[in-house]
């Protein structure tokens, strides 16, 4: 039985994580809940026990934590994770922010595809960006055929930006004025072809993350990835249109077989699916798989998944369940 801490327990990722801890009966003896000072003192019930939310500073006094779920910004991960590691000699940190992902020595783990990396015993484990997580689930086994290039367009829900994105959409739908909007443009009845900040080559930080993390997880820096990430006015679920070129010809039946053999990935052959259809599902879905008749050795597909499950909270809890098995005799 382990002692856990959830940093960002009142955010979208933190709240879904708490729901999953209850639903999956995650084996822990004590939970420390951390949020900003504005949430300090709030009471949250987890598995019949009421816990009081404390501030980050107060949580630094704790010295016997086993697993920390970090569900807040990269800036706060940079500030607090090293302090938790210093104070809690043997603890593991599962980071949902982008802070540790860019560190070459930290593994990005998506349990259905690469949970064996947990055996390495590294104390910091990174979740991927939510968009990368859905993409990797769909194409991981196709990498055996030799992926040469991918052209990706993402359609990302506002919950991907946390509470502030969701609030902007809701307030705009109600015709309310927003004082500090999350997005540079209206999102209600609109789409925004910019997520994050632009670099000198007109590529956004979200697109950079998708490209870097995909190559890192697939352990192949030669894959060409061209990405356009777009914010769309829906509450939950991210979608991706992916055009994928292989080094050699591959039969569509072999692609189907690989997709169908991946756990937690569902191929829809004769129908389409939409975000509303799969909002409550944990799996990643692929539909519209088809040969590209213009380009050699190329296929197209459409991927949909709930960003808060596969892209964040579900992924975190699966990593933690793996740690329990590997290091806590559970
Ligand atoms: N949303 C997604 O789909 C998704 C997917 C993958 C990864 N992520 C990443 O996961 C992280 C959390 O995302 P989110 O969507 O849950 O964000 P969010 O809804 O904005 O929640 C942020 C959380 O951080 C807490 N917080 C803010 N300042 C704090 C401080 N100074 N000390 C302690 N806690 C503080 C907030 O507490 P208060 O409520 O008290 O302000 C809240 O609990 C981010 O790094 C995000 O990029 C998100």
Automatic annotation (TrEMBL):
Please give the Gene Ontology molecular function terms for this protein: NAD binding; oxidoreductase activity, acting on the aldehyde or oxo group of donors, NAD or NADP as acceptor; protein dimerization activity
Provide a GO biological process annotation.
amino acid biosynthetic process
Q: Which Gene3D superfamilies match?
A: Dihydrodipicolinate Reductase, domain 2, NAD(P)-binding Rossmann-like Domain
N-terminal signal peptide:
none
SUPFAM superfamilies the record matches:
Glyceraldehyde-3-phosphate dehydrogenase-like, C-terminal domain, NAD(P)-binding Rossmann-fold domains
Domain Semialdehyde dehydrogenase NAD-binding: residue ranges: 3-121
Q: Pfam families recorded for this chain?
A: Semialdhyde_dh, Semialdhyde_dhC
> Which chain regions cross the lipid bilayer?
none
Family of this protein: Belongs to the aspartate-semialdehyde dehydrogenase family.
What's the name of the protein?
Answer: Semialdehyde dehydrogenase NAD-binding domain-containing protein
Q: Which organism is it from?
A: marine metagenome
């Amino acid at each position: 039985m382990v002692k856990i801490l959830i940093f960002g327990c009142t955010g979208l990722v933190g709240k879904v994580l708490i729901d999953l801890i209850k639903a999956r009966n995650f084996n822990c003896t004590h939970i420390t809940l951390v949020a900003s000072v504005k949430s300090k003192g709030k009471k949250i019930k987890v598995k019949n026990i009421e816990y009081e939310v404390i501030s980050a500073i107060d949580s630094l006094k704790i010295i016997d934590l086993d697993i920390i779920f970090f569900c807040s910004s990269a800036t706060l991960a940079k500030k607090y994770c090293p302090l938790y590691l210093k104070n809690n000699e043997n603890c593991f940190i599962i980071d949902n922010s982008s802070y540790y992902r860019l560190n070459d020595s930290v593994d990005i783990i998506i349990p259905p595809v690469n949970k064996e990396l947990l055996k390495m015993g590294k104390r910091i484990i990174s979740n991927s960006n939510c968009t990368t997580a859905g993409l990797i689930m769909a194409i991981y086994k196709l990498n055996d055929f030799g992926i040469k290039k991918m052209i990706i367009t993402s359609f990302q829900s506002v919950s991907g930006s946390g509470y502030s994105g969701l609030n902007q959409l809701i307030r705009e739908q109600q015709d309310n004025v927003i004082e500090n909007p999350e997005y540079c443009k209206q999102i209600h009845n609109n789409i925004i072809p910019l997520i994050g900040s632009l670099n000198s080559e007109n590529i956004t930080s979200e697109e950079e993350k998708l490209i870097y993390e995909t190559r890192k997880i697939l352990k192949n820096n030669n894959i060409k990835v061209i990405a356009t990430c777009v914010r769309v006015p829906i509450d939950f679920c991210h979608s991706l249109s992916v055009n994928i070129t292989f080094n050699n010809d591959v039969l569509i039946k072999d692609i189907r077989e690989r997709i169908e053999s991946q756990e937690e990935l569902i191929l829809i052959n004769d129908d389409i699916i939409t975000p509303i259809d799969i909002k409550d599902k944990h799996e990643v879905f692929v539909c519209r798989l088809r040969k590209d008749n213009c380009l050699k050795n190329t296929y197209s597909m459409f991927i949909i998944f709930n960003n808060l499950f596969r892209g964040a909270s579900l992924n975190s809890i699966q990593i933690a369940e793996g740690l329990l098995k590997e290091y806590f005799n559970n």
